[in-house]
Amino acid sequence: MAVKDYIAPSSVDDAVAVLSEHGADARPFAGGTDLIIQVRERRRQVGIMLDVKKIPELMEYSIGADGSLRVGAAVACARLYNDAEVARRFPALIDSASLIGGIQIQSRASLGGNLCNSSPAGDSIPTLIALGATCEIAGRGGRRTVPVESFCTGPGANVLQPGELLVSLTFPAPAANSGAAFERFIPRNEMDIAVANAAANVTLSADGATFTAARIAIGAVAPTALLVAETGAALAGKPVSADTIAAAAAAARAAARPITDMRGSADQRRHLAGVLVTRVIEKAVERARKA
Ligand SMILES: Cc1cc2nc3c(=O)[nH]c(=O)nc-3n(C[C@H](O)[C@H](O)[C@H](O)COP(=O)(O)OP(=O)(O)OC[C@H]3O[C@@H](n4cnc5c(N)ncnc54)[C@H](O)[C@@H]3O)c2cc1C
Question: For position 59, what pLDDT does the model report?
Fold first, then answer.
């Protein structure tokens, strides 16, 4: 079935009305860098393309008086990393936003699209989880909030119900003495899909010597990106040391449930989860000490 129509509503309510009326036949799109390719390659059938980029709420981002960041679901990655204040306060977000494709893709691709595409290897998802971001979802019954770690339910699947639209992502203000970082492994220095990726968000004691809290997420090593509570627990209350970080990395390896595919074996992915978690914790500590 070919695309029959293109609709560009100017409000969330109008978008929800179109999605509710047409069900699975209508599909929202932001940058289209996933969806248009999927439609062209006949991997997904869409009757009505619902362009969300005319909806102001989805195209705006702002830092609140409390230091939290609210990002409309369709804001392009390049707008975020070109904003010095966002980059200073949320460097892990910029780690992710600045390596999703090349500059042309980054000028279109959104965090909302990356999350709603729900690839296990999506490069923003571990960062969104580590930073404690929440999704604001609009539907006919009103709005609801879901933590990002509960959003994806499987490869290409998520909690969005028919008629629902992701409106925004909200990131709490970074805690004092905290730092966060994201890294991925790809087999070449070009654009590619992550074999494994990971993000860490650590909070240190005022003297920078002890972990007081941590959120660690890993991607491409399970059907969805995972918040690894055991890794966070392995850090909290412990001294910042190679031994502590090694214990956290071991917990991440244990939590991984990878598959073997053309990009890498399950063993390699499990190993990479440990390596990447070590690196992102070290980088997050460095950033926390400079915060
Ligand atoms: C050359 C190339 C390189 C790439 N490199 C990377 C990479 O390095 N890392 C990576 O993670 N990804 C990569 N991607 C994939 C893609 O660019 C990203 O996933 C991107 O963030 C998707 O954002 P988008 O706005 O283009 O999403 P779209 O294609 O517009 O949408 C993606 C999905 O989300 C749904 N959707 C979008 N917005 C909403 C909304 N508000 N509410 C509900 N559903 C919504 C759509 O229906 C669709 O199913 C690459 C793609 C290309 C073509």
Answer: 98
The pick from 20, 22, 34, 38 for probing ligand 1's pocket by mutation, whose C-beta has the most ligand atoms within 8 angstroms, reads: 34
145 and 67 part of one domain = yes
Residue 237 to residue 39: CA distance in whole angstroms? 49
pLDDT (0 to 100) of residue 1: 60
Amino acid, single-letter form, for residue 105? I
Ligand 1 atom at shortest distance from the alpha carbon of 35: 29
What pLDDT is recorded for position 189?
67
Does some domain include residue 27?
no
Query: Does 246 share its domain with 160?
Result: no
Domain presence at residue 166: yes
Residues 64 and 56: beta-carbon distance below 8 Å: no
- Give the contacts of 203 (CB within 8 A, at least 6 positions apart): 175, 176, 177, 178, 211, 212, 213, 214, 288
- On whether both 89 and 125 belong to a single domain, the answer is yes
How confident is the prediction for the chain on average, in pLDDT?
96
Neighbours of 202 (CB within 10 A): 31
Residue 19, in any domain of the structure: no
CB crowding 232-246: b at 16 or more within 10 Å, else e: bebbeebebeeebbe
Burial class (CB in 10 A: 0-12, 13-18, 19+), 102: exposed
Is position 198 within any domain?
yes
Closest ligand 1 atom to 121 CA = 11
Q: Same structural domain for residues 101 and 155?
A: yes
This prediction has a pTM of 0.98
If one residue of 100, 106, 186, 191 were mutated to test the ligand 1 pocket, choosing by the most ligand atoms within 8 A of its CB, it would be 100
Q: What is the reported pLDDT for 154?
A: 98
Mean pLDDT to the nearest integer, 262-277: 95
Q: Which residues pair with 214 in a beta bridge?
A: 202
- For residues 149 and 74, membership in a common domain is answered with yes
* Domain, as residue range, for 256: 178-290
Query: Domains in the chain: how many in total?
Result: 2
